[in-house]
Fold this sequence. Notes:
Chain A: Pfam families: GatC. The structure holds 2 protein chains of 2 kinds. Chain A is mostly helical. Chain A has helices at residues 7-16, 23-44, 75-80, and strands at residues 64-65, 85-86, 89-92. Helices cover 38% and strands 8% of the residues of chain A. Chain B is of the alpha+beta class. In chain B, 38% of the residues lie in helices and 19% in strands. A 9-stranded mixed beta sheet of chain B has the order 3-6-7-10-1-11-12-13-14, with helices on one face. The model of chain B has no long low-confidence stretch (mean pLDDT 91). The interface between A and B is large, with 39 and 62 residues.
Amino acid sequence: MSDRITAADVAKVARLARLDLSPQEIERMTAQLDGMLEHFADVDALDLADVAPMTQPFPLVNVFRADVVQPGLDRDEVLAAAPAAQDGRFRVPPTGGVEG
Amino acid sequence: MSEYDGLPGDWELVVGLEVHVELATATKLFSASPNRFGDEPNTNIDPVTLGLPGALPVLNEHAVELAMRVGLALNCTVQPSTFHRKNYFYPDMPKAYQVTQYDQPLNVDGHLDLPNGVRIGIERAHMEEDAGKSTHVGGTGGRVHGANHSLIDLNRAGVPLVEIVSRPDIRSADDARAYVSELRAILVVIGASDAKMEEGSMRVDANVSVRKPGTPLGTRCEIKNVNSVRSVGRAIEYEARRQIDLIESGDAVRQQTRHWDETDGRTHTLRTKEDADDYRYFLEPDLVPLAPSAEWIERVRAALPMLPAARRTRLSAATGQAADSEAVGSVVERGQDDYVLTVAAAGGDAARALVHVKEAFADQSATPQVPAADLAQLTTLELGGKLTATQAKAVLAEIVAHNGGDANVIAAAKGFEAMDTSSLEALVDDAIAADPDAWQKFCNGDGKAMGALVGLVMKSSKGKADGKLVTALLNQKKR
Lengths: 100, 479
């Protein structure tokens, strides 16, 4: 097993992504993710001191939209696609909590 | 003058504020649905807002311009920026991430000077999108705790925000309040936001810690849900005292997010900071970098209107009132300082005009209906001794009620005529003769007795006497 990624890392990322992985799955994912990171290690091996970091593959900046209203989606149609709705709103299970 | 109690002992308060403001655009940050408060729930939604598969964000140019205005008004450097995804699961943000400027914010390293001269550093003012609105059903008081379910309105999701992060330079509840109030005034003047705390278009989170002077920063707690300028100071002071009590009883402050409850005046634990803060930021692949040109930045800077601090200095110079006085502060806040200056330019007395505008124009807009010349005339009559302060007030009330009027005509109609000092002196002498007992008490320093004598003069002059002048004459005669 490599030191690039551990089963604990995978378990944590899975928890943050709300994925319920079995120990077997965690083991398998750890190996797979480690394999992917190995490819990046190839990039790490290059001397890139003179290369500017690239945030985007496109040579573009400042792509804008004018501040003009366009028609959106119909509420009833959208809410009909949701698991539950009430009073024109999406109805969801309770979230988070104030402890007191 | 503080309405807060301050901290016990030699504890020092350390506060940094994070202020979210909704920008006054027509549309959302990355989509063309309206940015409008108070509409029917979920009527301003589109594929980008809903995070539907394949929907792509496109940046609103006007939002960028307003964000630059905010940065430049706060003396920030405007720099090239990128957008990141901040990943978290919460139903008010259906795509499961918020797009925000992370390690390259648009505006950095600015400052805001409070009216009392204290300078508060601005670390950054970055752009991001707002989340939707959750209404918690069941439980108590609409809070999350104990709720059975939540109802989600996504009209606000994707509305453009600027988050203004101060440095931890604030040392008192009063300064925190002054910071929020000054920031609000700036945002309104530059047209970046309506900055209404009661409608949530301006929201304040406070990072509060306490320490002994000269020691390192203490553990901080973040206070959320502070909904008015006044509660900013209250929440901070409550939280500081809570932390001091913990430390003094041998406990430690735990780093937490706490919720300010306006009704019980306390903060409550919202969540303990653990891996909830692990947002796994990464560059938003659907957006290209933002790099405003120097020319664009200078154009925005040049178009900034005069800011509140400069307006206060200008009004102070014209009226002789201190720049941090209540009169100058509130008139500038209402945007009526130009009007006071117009009254002065029309031949009126600036200092009297300031007092009248402050007292009688609170309900009026930045451009009151009353012609400046009418107010100018009133101040001239007052200054020339033709009207007492009390009479001037009565005439002004008429002028305001009719959106204008000739002060001479109104004063005459009310039977106001100035008294000369000699006839007034005779009335003062009469009053002393009429109530020698009160006069004796007054000479022995009884303030109430003076009121009785002034009252007598007012009665005999049928209210025309200038109260200040009567007091001055009484004091003169005492010697």
